[in-house]
Amino acid sequence: MKIIKNIFELNKAIKNYKNIGFVPTMGGIHRGHTSLIKTSQRKNLKTIVSIFVNPTQFNKKKDFNIYPRNITNDIQILKKLKVDYLFTPNVKEIYKKKMKKFTLKRTEKVLCAKFRPGHFEGVLDVMNRLLSLIKSKNVFMGEKDFQQYLLIKKILGKKFKIEIVGCPIVRDKNKIALSTRNKLLNKDSVIKASNIARKLISLKRNSIVKKMKMPINFFKIKSDFEKRYKIRIDYLEIRDEKNLRLNNIKSKYRLFIAYNINNVRLIDNF
Ligand code: AMP
């Protein structure tokens, strides 16, 4: 695996390849990330992984500072997987060029866009920078961050004419969606997060969600969760999978949750 730290080396290394599969990450590599990498490799693409903890997408400085980082361990995992390239630039390298900023439409300001102002503007900015450097055929993104996947597909997929491939959520044995942030959870929070995930999986599976009248019953589940687990829920909503519309769900829908447990913010969808 070739480790690349700056744009000059990057251009030198990948300029001759057309079949590039790109997996952008913030590191703390886990099975969620490796499933994206394996999907790229199965498509016979030269696979490049980036590890960049992007400061502009954290709307709280403290959250950025405590974000778990372990580059040595990440490199070991990626080498074992026979990833072709790892791109680990620093902040200066990525932000040295002035580039157009993104704003969200009013209708897009739902779920995390509503509760983390500036977050997706930061995500779109960094992804715009990365995609203008890495001319990839496919970009692999997890459905764990479903709203992020949809926004990037809609805005940047179109702009760069690349296919953004959505990959299924990988969960641990407790049914919690794998996330680098899970390292910040204590034992008690893991039990609570597991109970919440199991409950929402069963709600979705039994299609109870579909029959529920919005929003009354969700208010009840939400307040039950908040009381029982001492958490603060930002949102618990079902939305159309295509356009994230709240009402008038005609076909496929997903149940979205974001909550704060012991100062850790978790998101998931079912
Ligand atoms: P992150 O490092 O958290 O920014 O994630 C990098 C990429 O991995 C994003 O496209 C995420 O959606 C994806 N990802 C993170 N966790 C999971 C998971 N549990 N299952 C599937 N994809 C994931």
Q: Which segments are poorly predicted (pLDDT under 50) over 5 or more consecutive residues? A: none
Heteromolecules bound: adenosine monophosphate
Order of helices and strands: EHEHEHHEHHHEHEHHHEEE
Distance between the termini: 35 Å
* Shape-level CATH architecture of the largest domain: 3-Layer(aba) Sandwich
Tally of separate domains = 2
- Count of separate DSSP helical elements: 11
Mean pLDDT: 94
Strand arrangement in the largest pleated sheet? 1-4-3-2-5-6
Please identify which CATH superfamily of the largest domain we are dealing with: HUPs
Rough outline: globular
CATH topology-level name of the largest domain: Rossmann fold
Task: Give an overview in words.
This protein has 270 residues and is an alpha/beta fold. It has two domains: 2-167, HUPs (Rossmann fold, 3-Layer(aba) Sandwich), CATH 3.40.50.620; 185-264, no CATH class. Helix content is 41%, strand content 19%. The protein contains eleven helices and nine strands. The chain has helices spanning 7-14, 31-42, 61-66, 71-80, 91-95, 112-115, 119-133, 146-160, 187-205, 208-211, 216-229; strands spanning 2-4, 20-25, 46-51, 85-87, 138-142, 163-167, 232-240, 253-261, 264-269. Strands 1-4-3-2-5-6 form a six-stranded parallel β-sheet, sandwiched between helices. Helix 2 (31-42) links the parallel strand 2 (20-25) and strand 3.
